[in-house]
Amino acid sequence: xxxxxxxxxxxxxxxxxxxxxxxxxxxxxxxxxxxxxxxxxxxxxxxxxxxxxxxxxxxxxxxxxxxxxxxxxxxxxxxxxxxxxxxxxxxxxxxxxxxxxxxxxxxxxxxxxxxxxxxxxxxxxxxxxxxxxxxxxxxxxxxxxxxxxxxxxxxxxxxxxxxxxxxxxxxxxxxxxxxxxxxxxxxxxxxxxxxxxxxxxxxxxxxxxxxxxxxxxxxxxxxxxxxxxxxxxxxxxxxxxxxxxxxxxxxxxxx
Length: 255
What we know:
This protein has one domain (about 35-255). The longest helix has about 35 residues, at about 110-145. It is mainly α. Helix 3 crosses helix 6 (about 110-145) and helix 6 packs across helix 9 (about 200-230). It has 10 helices and no strands.
């Protein structure tokens, strides 16, 4: 069997396995009952918003790519990011799709350094934008949960993110005798690209800004799905509650 048919058969087999897994894992009978009561207009609107999220996130990745001088076309970036999202949702680890995106970006012509560093820094920018959004909305969150020790969690996370970026910037400070090791040279390249991104006002504003807007759009899509399912949750609650939930669920993957 030639390589192309074999590749198609493998993709088809993976798709069938994933569909089978979804069918086995979820109770489709109760799902059908929920579908009969859905307000489909809101569902379609939510789907449109989630597609816009992918364009937003592509713009975030491209802000990183352009700043570190790695070249991919917009539509190639969009396609690779969408494939990465699919694998993030289906693989056990929520960052497995990022490894797939690195691999595909390398196949599209990026250097190994550019492929790896662009995805790492895009994820750092996304996390930074998410934490910034959570910090801005924290007063509204405290109005809902009261004054409890949990209010310290998100400022502490913000400090850790800033420290993490600073550490990335200084990863090229290893003594010269260690530069013969490939991993040390790789860390040096990552430090150089981190400086290009986060010491550039435009690069920082664009990448982190698209991190904020992406999570606002996700919260809005969640609100639309609440309307579709007739769940009594107002839009402010979604903007206040959804980003912290996303943050808490994604932190283990980053660590």
